[in-house]
């Protein structure tokens, strides 16, 4: 075992305040924090900080203005564009001036519905600069989901682009923005639209403003100064799937976030100033927020913003070429992406041909990394492949192998060890710790370390719920166990959340949508195993008597989920069935459905209402 890892973890548990106050010294504070933690104010009470200053300005001030900050690599548009720290400062400053001209100030919200283009990064950092709170909404969500987020965050301004590019397809965003603004009860003052050359969207005055025109109009305005905010003030709200149809607005603070991310770059990923880091995710997810935008820039490193897919843009060699072209030192992606690459290039011909340049390690997260995928990637790349685990709520890895602390221990199928700052316990249903080797609810002792959420936007009760199941602990919603060697294995969720291609979705929310569809008497949505996406949702619907043909109903259900939740839901399989298996008390046996769909053996429980139902379903599903 790495002594450095062990010492760091122990120090973070024995003296969390000292440990994190020391880590916080890596940042510029407008006012240094008075102490490490207080129950009332969270991490770094009394501290005043600006995240944009730390991610951008201070590197320029330190004479690193010519160092590369951002590389935009877009195989879908054939563009590679580099921004130095000085150029990034200029761009962020211009967007901050635009927002300031629209009256955006500290504490105001700005919703950002944009693809993987540099302007999205500028917009996020510009908000941080002004002390405003951004909320980025992933482009794969439908207008109704965008509207829900607009209503909850009540932004002054919405920033959008005219289109996203998904593989070979161009997806117009403006019609979705218009629809969302129509559906939302909250009215934004302005929608600022960045017109990409692929699509020019019509603007609706006076609400809509053209990004570049606004930039022109404010060109003479001075770059707004970085506004110091309290360490506990929100930097962003990121909505994620909960167990209901209402998304959870995870609130990220400034001080704890900047401290934890900076620590993680040096101690988990081994990235410092001048290194190149690439997280192949999307800025709409937490991985994108933390490891495309904030962490690499806080560390003074170079981040790669990749607008493409692992396959098809144009081929499964794109990851390796991008790593090689930019000299990526550490690469982060989702297991799904590797499975997709492997499917198209099983012998890793592209990888063998291109190599992996100076890359030292590949990190995986977002869903469980199956041992077979890790084995393939390690064998073909010759690099350590490190699975690590975290959640939107936590903001940065909580279980990992701390590679940069000299730890290389890995066990395929395990996410690694508790990261410094995190004290994990596996709890049984009675709330008591279970022995090693036994599965239970994965819980983290409160208080959570810096970076982790301390509330949900407009929903403190929803936040408190995470700590109610097991008093004194944060309930992660995952099930897992420690093995005899101290590795933590995450086995799946304890709730109705599923991970589809690394995207977190609620089957409960899909059920709500399906249930509302005309002609549906009852339904169930479950996660089925999928060779590429890890999981995919599958719906079972029982038609109301006299409803139209099953085929029409199935089509309507598929399109309802796509239209209301978005294409990212990837619900493509719907079975119209005569009945659902239920207990005598009427509870739908989703576990049984899951086994049937996955072709696993099952016993018909004695409590089931009609023992012939599973057999019928089995016939339908596999027939
Ligand atoms: N804007 C608009 N639509 C989007 C979108 C976006 N930003 N992202 C995804 N979609 C759409 C896709 O076009 C697709 O629509 P379709 O049903 O019309 O084809 C649907 O949402 C599902 O997308 P996706 O999950 O990306 O599936 P895919 O089949 O297009 O690609 C993979 C499969 C494996 C290549 C892809 O899922 C992938 O790259 N996964 C890695 C995920 C990842 O990095 N997750 C971050 C967690 S760390
Ligand atoms: P998200 O909030 O979208 O990051 O999703 C978090 C959830 O994804 C976790 O609660 C897990 O269920 C799952 N997850 C993320 N990373 C891993 C991993 N490395 N291994 C297993 N599950 C993971």
UniProtKB/TrEMBL annotation:
Residues 5-55 form the Acetyl-coenzyme A synthetase N-terminal domain. It comes from the Bacteria. Residues 510-587 form the AMP-binding enzyme C-terminal domain. Pfam families: ACAS_N, AMP-binding, AMP-binding_C. Residues 59-447 form the AMP-dependent synthetase/ligase domain. Belongs to the ATP-dependent AMP-binding enzyme family. This is AMP-binding protein. It comes from Novosphingobium beihaiensis.
């Amino acid at each position: 075992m790495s002594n450095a890892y062990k010492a760091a973890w122990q120090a973070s548990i024995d003296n969390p305040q000292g440990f994190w106050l020391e880590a916080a010294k890596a940042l510029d504070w407008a006012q240094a924090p008075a102490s490490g933690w207080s129950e009332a104010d969270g991490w770094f009470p009394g501290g005043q900080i600006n995240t944009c200053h730390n991610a951008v300005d201070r590197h320029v001030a330190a004479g690193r203005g010519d160092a590369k900050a951002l590389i935009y690599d877009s195989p879908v548009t054939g563009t590679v564009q580099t921004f130095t720290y000085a150029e990034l400062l200029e761009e962020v400053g211009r967007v901050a001036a635009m927002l300031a001209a629209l009256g955006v100030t500290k504490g105001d919200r700005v919703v950002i519905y944009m693809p993987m283009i540099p302007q999205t990064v500028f917009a996020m950092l510009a908000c941080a600069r002004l002390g405003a709170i951004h909320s980025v909404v992933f482009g794969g969500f439908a207008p109704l989901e965008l509207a829900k987020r607009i209503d909850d965050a009540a932004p002054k301004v919405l920033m959008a682009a005219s289109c996203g590019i998904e593989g070979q397809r161009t997806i117009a965003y403006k019609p979705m923005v218009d629809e969302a603004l129509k559906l939302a009860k909250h009215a934004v003052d302005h929608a600022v639209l960045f017109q990409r050359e692929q699509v020019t969207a019509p603007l609706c005055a006076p609400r809509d403003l053209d990004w570049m025109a606004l930039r022109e109009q404010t060109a003479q305005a001075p770059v707004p100064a970085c506004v110091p905010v309290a360490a506990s003030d929100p930097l962003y709200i990121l909505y994620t799937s909960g167990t209901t149809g209402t998304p959870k607005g995870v609130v990220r603070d400034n001080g704890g976030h900047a401290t934890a991310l900076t620590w993680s770059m040096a101690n988990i990923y081994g990235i410092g100033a001048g290194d190149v880091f690439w997280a192949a995710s999307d800025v709409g997810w937490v991985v994108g927020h933390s490891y495309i935008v904030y962490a690499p820039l806080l560390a003074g490193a170079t981040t790669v913003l990749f607008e493409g897919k692992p396959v098809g843009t144009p081929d499964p060699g794109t990851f390796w070429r991008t790593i090689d072209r930019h000299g990526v030192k550490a690469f982060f992606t989702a297991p799904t992406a590797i499975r997709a690459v492997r499917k198209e290039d099983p012998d890793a011909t592209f990888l063998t041909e291109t190599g992996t340049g100076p890359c030292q390690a590949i990190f995986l997260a977002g869903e469980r990394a199956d041992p077979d995928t890790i084995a393939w990637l390690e064998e073909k790349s010759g690099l350590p492949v490190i699975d690590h685990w975290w959640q939107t709520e936590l903001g940065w890895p909580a279980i990992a192998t701390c590679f940069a602390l000299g730890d290389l221990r890995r066990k395929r199928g395990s996410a690694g060890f508790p990261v410094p700052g995190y004290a994990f316990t596996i709890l049984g249903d009675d709330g008591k710790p279970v022995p090693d080797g036994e599965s239970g609810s994965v819980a983290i002792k409160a208080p959570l370390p810096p970076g982790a959420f301390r509330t949900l936007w407009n929903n403190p009760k929803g936040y408190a719920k995470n700590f109610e199941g097991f008093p004194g602990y944060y309930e992660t919603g995952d099930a897992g166990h420690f093995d005899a060697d101290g590795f933590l294995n995450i086995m799946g969720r304890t709730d109705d959340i599923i991970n589809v291609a690394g995207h977190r979705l609620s089957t409960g929310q899909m059920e709500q949508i399906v249930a509302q569809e005309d002609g549906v008497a009852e339904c169930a949505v479950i996660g089925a195993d999928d060779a590429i996406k890890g999981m995919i949702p599958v719906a079972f619907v029982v038609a109301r008597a006299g409803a139209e043909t099953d085929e029409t109903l199935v089509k309507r259900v598929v399109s309802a989920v796509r239209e209301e939740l978005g294409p990212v839901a990837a619900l493509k399989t719907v079975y119209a069935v005569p009945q659902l298996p239920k207990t005598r008390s009427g509870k739908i046996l989703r576990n049984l459905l899951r086994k049937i769909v996955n072709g696993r053996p099952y016993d018909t429980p004695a409590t089931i209402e009609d023992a012939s139902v599973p057999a019928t379903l089995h016939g339908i599903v596999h027939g």
